[in-house]
Structure formats: structure tokens, C-alpha cells
Amino acid sequence: MLRSLDILHGYRIAARDDDFGAVKDFLFDDRTWSVRYLVVDTHRWLPGRKVVLPPAALGSPDWQEHILPVTLTRAEVEAAPALAEHEPVSAQHEMDIYNYFEWAPYWFGGNSVRGTLKPGQERIGEERNPDLAEQPCGDKHLQSAEELTGYRMQATDGEIGHVHDMILDDEAWKIRYLVVDTRNWIPGRKVLLAVEWMRSLRWDERKAHADLSRDEISHSPRFDSEEPINREYEEILYDYYGRPAYWGHRQTHGQ
To answer: Where are the extended beta strands (E) located within 89-169?
Structure first.
């Protein structure tokens, strides 16, 4: 299902024995838009520390109660490798986390979606795929969703607004869309742009560049952020832009 990252902020993180924090941010790979980690605010429990967990650590979410359970105890979380609150997630910290929990990491052919962790197996360092051993992790491509919010959105021929929210596919744990607020251009309107229609993200300029014109975007199907995004709406959206859909069905403009 497609869900707003903005709404997921504040969801409680429940260990096997008690809650220990709430979702503060999401870290994603800006090449694939896959969410690699949830950043957890532990409030006063672990002051000065940042807890990062891969989506595979999650159990079955309770969407109605806004709870994301994890297959860990509070003691396991507390004893995990520490990361200072304002430090970036380095390659070494990623390796330390996966080794500590004996999980299969995404850069060795694992997957970050739920259900792919492998606790109790041999240590990660003893299972490395030599073809993937040099795969970079913790590099400049690991970005904050919170940081991206507010970036100015550029069409091919000018600015159209700013990034207001992101839409997550909670099965693949991948960002599918950016929600763009066009209030300074078309008052009272938001538009939905698929991430594969982005040409680039300019982190140094705080800008996102879309491979679409202002005219195309101005006439796009109306988006209501209060309504759930279903496949019918997605088909209308992709059909309008004449782009191949991520679920594998190709629509062309005017069909």
C-alpha cells in the first residue's frame, strides 16, 4: 500500500518487551529511492544517541494504532553500536549494526524489506559474496527524507513549487512519489510526481529537478492528499504523462 511519509513520522516503535521511541526520519538511497533505515527518536531513554533500524527489523505494522513493532528487545537496542545524534551513518556503522544483529545486509545481496533478516546465522563477514564485497555503503547516496522536504522543485522550464511529502510503498519499502506543493504558482494545489521522472537531486542547491515541463505538470490529474492513492489513480497519472509504470504496465498518453 502507498503511504505518506509525513503521516508515518511519529509512529511508535515497539520492541518485544516495550515501546522505545518513535519514527523521526527515513534514510533512503537517492539512486534507487529504496528506504534503507528508519531513524528512531528514543526521547529520554537514550539521550544523545540515534537509533537506525532497517525495515527488515519490523514485524507486522499496526496501521490503525500507529505502531511499528520490531523483532528486538530494548536491551538489544541499547547494547547495539552507538551513533551520535548528529553524526551521519557511516559505512563502518552500517557494518557494525548488521554484524551485531547477525543480519544479512542489503549490499551483500540481501534485501531491506520486511522478513529478510537472518538472525542466528554465521557472522556477516564470513558470508560475503566476493562479487559484492566492494559494494559501497554509508556513502553520499544515503539521504534523509526529512532533509528533502522543502526542497524547491524545478521543471525543465522553471520552478513549480517545493517538496511537501513523499509517498512510500510499504511492501517494497521504496519511495514511489514526491508530493509537490505548488502554492506559489497554482494556489491551493498539490501534484504527485513519480520518482523516476526526476532528472536529479541537487543537495548543495536544495533543489529537485523533474524531467517534465511546467505546462505538463499544470494540467496533470488532480491530487487530493486526503484521499488514499489507489491503482486506478496511478494508472490515470501514468497514462496522462505517457510514461512506463513501475508495476510493469505501459500506458501511452491519449489512450
So the answer is: 142-144, 152-155, 158-169
Cell of 4: 505518506
2-143 maps to CATH 3.10.20.30: no
Residue 109 neighbours by CB distance under 10 Å: 13
d(CA 157, CA 102): 49
Cell numbers at residue 240, please?
Answer: 496522462
Burial of 156 (0-12, 13-18, 19+ CB in 10 A): middle
CA gap 178, 194 in Å, rounded: 6
Assigned CATH for 149-241:
3.90.50.10
Measure the CA–CA gap between 96 and 143, rounded to whole angstroms: 19
pLDDT over threshold 90, residue 129: no
pLDDT digits (tens, 9 = 90+) for 22-81: 999 999 999 999 999 999 998 889 988 889 999 888 999 999 999 999 989 999 999 988
The residue type at 233 = Y
Whether 2-143 shares its CATH topology with 149-241 is answered: yes
Amino acid letter, 208: A
Q: Where are the domains of the chain?
A: 2-143, 149-241
**C-alpha distances in Å from residue 148, one per residue of 100, 153, 155, 187, 205:** 30, 10, 17, 22, 11
